[in-house]
Amino acid sequence: MHQIKYTLLAVLVGLLTLSISSCSLIGNKKNSTVDDVFKQGAIDPNLVPNNVSYVPIYPFINNVNKPLDVFVGYDEFTYVVVDNDENILEDNEVFMFDQKAQLVYRITIPGATDITQDRRLHTYIAGRFFTDASKTTHLAAVYHLKNLASGKPEFLDTLKHYICDESRNNTAYRGADDVAVKFTGLATLFDNTLYVARSGPRNELGGIARPDNGVLVFNAAGQNIGFTSQLTPNQSSLKSSVGISGIATLAAPPQRVSGISTSKNMFICLGDQSQNLEYRALSIVSSEDPDQGTVYGENGAFLNFDFSKANRFMYESFRFLQPEDIFAAPDASGYIFITDSKKDSVFVFSNNGFEGVNPPANSPTKKQIIVSFGGSGENGNGSGPFNLIDPSGICYNSRTIFVCDKGNNRVCRYRLNTDLQ
User: Fold this and answer.
1) pTM of the predicted protein model
2) How many CA atoms lie within 13 A of 345 on its CB side?
3) What does the mean pLDDT of the chain come to?
4) Which residues contact 307 (CB under 8 A, 6 or more apart)?
5) What span, in angstroms and rounded, lies between the C-alpha atoms of 116 and 185?
6) Dist CA 56 CA 69 (whole Å)
7) What was the pLDDT predicted at 20?
8) Domains defined along the chain, listed by start
9) Would you give the end-to-end CA distance of the chain in angstroms?
């Protein structure tokens, strides 16, 4: 399995003294595990003279079985979807943690895989619903709740495949093909519009029913108002929707005085392993057409490989093996974060697809500084602060990255060392 090795620079000594028992997001200046951080962590020496990197923020959220997704809501709670038993749908849960990383509530959602929240503090959870009393048949669903943070959730609606897709109003149940459909990602817009990523086996073009591969669009009332019909559901391209595994928008917590992005653009990643896809992380741009309404297409600007500004790029051919999730920072940084389970790594890109982060003002280099990190260790079982095994969900909030380290049963947190000032 591919690994990325890192060696911490001595300049981080004063920055990594973060407390494992801290009550704040970035901790205090005491940490007895700093020696382990230096022994097990790493920064590629080829990145010298760069001294910028992500560093662990304690405490990690431990003892969460196979975390699948993480999201820090507008309510400032951290929500983690866990798979307690991959063979039993009813065992999947959503854990809610406060800012001290203390568990304050948990709720069971059958087959839960993904979670997001809109500006009304309404929560959406992708999972499954049972179609018969014996619980042997189930279909994809998105559960819509409010008041989850209060510990007294109210279920408002359930978007059920295939009923929630208006193009299926006049089509019959497809049996095993409909059972195979999955809702694989959730994201919201500034006006509480909901994007639901979907994957499945039926992807014929020109029929009454939409292809399974794509993104369904719902308004705040839960009505299906659109679909990414311009994306390519059955082959690799710069606007492919083959096997979407994650989705992100530019509207995300926290609320800001300066306002929230009104863009309908999205980022998607494609984890499908049935095709050898050349591009697996895509920027999809929207535009308004007087006849078609919102139209979704490729972002050709990401093909600008300016080697005077960066050494690597998001749109390099076959850059990823199996990306699981993607998240776009809603703040001024605009960074894009991607987890790749086959590379056991987190990748970080600028908002124009250049790999890395902006160099500090006093840096001798003017290129983007590569800070991607991860690796499962020499024996594939590494559990150090920079090791990741089969990472899944990822999100970003208040300059902190939250990563579901699925193979280590934990949610890790990281910040750029230049932000620890």
Assistant:
1) 0.88
2) 20
3) 88
4) none
5) 9
6) 19
7) 30
8) 10-419 (2.120.10.30)
9) 36
